[in-house]
Specification:
Helix content: 25-40%
Distance between the termini: 75 Å
Largest sheet: 5 strands, antiparallel
Number of strands: 7
Radius of gyration: 27 Å
Structural class: alpha+beta
Number of helices: 6
Length: 151
């Protein structure tokens, strides 16, 4: 079965693949394909040189298949590594991202009489964020007792 070499770039943790000419590429379809196990082991030993130079971490061999759409890893783990996270891990950041306000949303007094006012940014409303439960001191009667004893 054909193999490629995968690792993580040390600078930012992005999944990379050993490409042609000793380069590391981010796209799976640009990876160098090793036809035999011996060839793959030789490529892996060269990848260890890049580990010593602090370019990548933990290079390893990945079994792949090739079809009309290009290369495809044979394991679920490597498919996830190639395609990226299976969840939207930035959803909480988008909830508080400022958005542009159109000129129509600006109060007339803030618009200073111009029709061509440029959009401004404002913070998202806190009610758009997920509610957080009570703090430990609010639910722990011992915390209130300690306050009373201190007085």
């Amino acid at each position: 079965m054909p193999k490629i070499i995968s690792a993580n770039r040390l600078a930012d943790g992005i999944v990379v693949y050993a490409g042609h000419g000793g380069a590391w590429v981010e796209k799976l379809n640009q990876a160098r394909i090793f036809a035999s196990k011996e060839e793959a082991e030789a490529g892996l030993s060269l990848a260890q040189d890049d580990v010593a130079r602090n370019l990548v971490v933990e290079p390893f061999l990945v079994d792949v298949t090739q079809d009309a759409n290009g290369l495809r890893p044979s394991t679920l783990r490597d498919s996830i590594r190639a395609q990226g996270p299976t969840i939207d891990f930035l959803a909480h950041r988008r909830a508080i991202t400022p958005r542009a306000i159109t000129p129509k949303e600006i109060h007339p007094r803030q618009n200073f009489g111009t029709e061509d006012a440029k959009p401004v940014l404002r913070e998202a409303h806190p009610e758009g964020l997920r509610a957080v439960g009570p703090k430990a001191w609010q639910t722990d009667p011992a915390a209130g007792l300690a306050e009373e004893l201190a007085e």
